[in-house]
């Protein structure tokens, strides 16, 4: 009997936990704003200006979800987190979602109680060196001191690459990306390694950006994207389809500038995207215009990419793999139908 009681208690606790976890959307709507975890400052992805206003691709992902859920992309509280803090903050409920240049990996997806809601930037790890070293390839870095950020996939990738190429290195570890670039600039290391997108972002923080060069080698796959807690499929769907809506919008030619005109489109795919016909927002527990609000207030994926990291930004990163699948890249979203 005692054993049965313990089982009943365990079942009750599991059901209670499930119900608690299943209310993220309701909690966000009741609170009136989204709590979104971002980096401590990475140009192009999540970075505050001198007035504390956050900008970047990861920031826009947060705003897209706020637009879908609250109808207002400005209703976001950005929570800056180091790489070591980010998963604990999400697991504990301190934030509703994580949008912080975070790589989707097997271990993270299966052992941390988290779900990756898609890839919003396909990246790969690289190396940045001072031009005065005269190094042209990462295979010339034997014996180098390497600045690296703690709690990231770059640590294991670095060890694997040097071991595979029978080279030695000395790791110089920092807690934040700002600390790594300061360490590099101060000469504490010969090399700074991170995702290539991050290297270009950190390079512009140097007093003399032209003194450093990013080497050509890309040594890993780094699919970056938003993350949510497991156990709340409704919230997982909202974050996932907020990203998919922006990708589909770019494919259909729907932008923040023409979205009002496109609401009158006779194209069934556009009608379904903008909530004027076909499938309904109730499938996500949202208003029918949830995707319209994202596109109107944040833009499609191409607009988000260009202004933050692409041609319209200081980083000037080429679309590459992040181009649409129909334009030579691998950016692809399931259809809204």
Automatic annotation (TrEMBL):
Record-stated family: Belongs to the bacterial solute-binding protein 3 family.
Keywords: Signal, Transport
Superkingdom field: Bacteria
UniProt xrefs under SUPFAM superfamilies: Periplasmic binding protein-like II (SSF53850)
A UniProt-annotated Pfam family: SBP_bac_3
SMART domains recorded: PBPb (SM00062)
Signal sequence segment: 1-22
Record GO biological process: amino acid transport
InterPro entries: Bact_solute-bind_prot3 (IPR051455), SBP_3_CS (IPR018313), Solute-binding_3/MltF_N (IPR001638)
Occurrences of domain Solute-binding protein family 3/N-terminal (ranges): 33-262
UniProt protein name: Amino acid ABC transporter substrate-binding protein
């Amino acid at each position: 009997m005692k054993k049965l009681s313990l089982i009943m208690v365990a079942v009750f606790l599991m059901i209670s936990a499930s119900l608690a976890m299943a209310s993220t959307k309701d909690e966000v709507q009741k609170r009136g704003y989204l709590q979104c975890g971002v980096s401590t400052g990475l140009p192009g992805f999540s970075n505050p200006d001198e007035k504390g206003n956050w900008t970047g691709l990861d920031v826009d992902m947060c705003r897209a979800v706020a637009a879908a859920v609250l109808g207002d992309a400005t209703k976001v509280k950005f929570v800056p987190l180091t790489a070591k803090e980010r998963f604990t903050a999400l697991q504990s409920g301190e934030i509703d979602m994580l949008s912080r240049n975070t790589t989707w990996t097997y271990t993270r997806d299966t052992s941390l109680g988290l779900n990756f809601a898609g890839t919003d930037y396909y990246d790969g790890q690289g190396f940045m060196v001072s031009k005065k070293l005269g190094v042209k390839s990462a295979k010339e870095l034997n014996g180098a001191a390497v600045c690296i950020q703690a709690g990231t996939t770059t640590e294991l990738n670095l060890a694997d690459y040097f071991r595979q190429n029978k080279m030695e290195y000395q790791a110089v570890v920092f807690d934040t990306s700002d600390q790594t670039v300061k360490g590099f600039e101060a000469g504490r290391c010969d090399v700074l390694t991170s995702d290539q997108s991050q290297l270009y972002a950190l390079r512009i923080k140097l007093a003399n950006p032209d003194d450093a060069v990013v080497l050509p080698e890309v040594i890993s796959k780094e699919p970056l994207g938003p993350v949510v807690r497991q156990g709340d499929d409704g919230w997982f769907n909202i974050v996932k389809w907020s990203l998919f809506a922006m990708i589909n919008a770019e494919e259909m030619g729907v932008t923040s500038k023409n979205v009002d005109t496109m609401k009158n489109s006779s194209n069934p795919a556009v009608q379904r995207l903008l909530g004027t016909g076909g499938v309904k927002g109730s499938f996500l527990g949202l208003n029918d215009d949830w995707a319209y609000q994202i596109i109107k207030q944040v833009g499609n994926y191409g607009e988000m990419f260009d202004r933050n990291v692409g041609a319209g930004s200081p980083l000037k990163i080429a679309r590459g793999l992040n181009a649409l699948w129909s334009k030579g890249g691998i950016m692809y979203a399931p259809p809204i139908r």
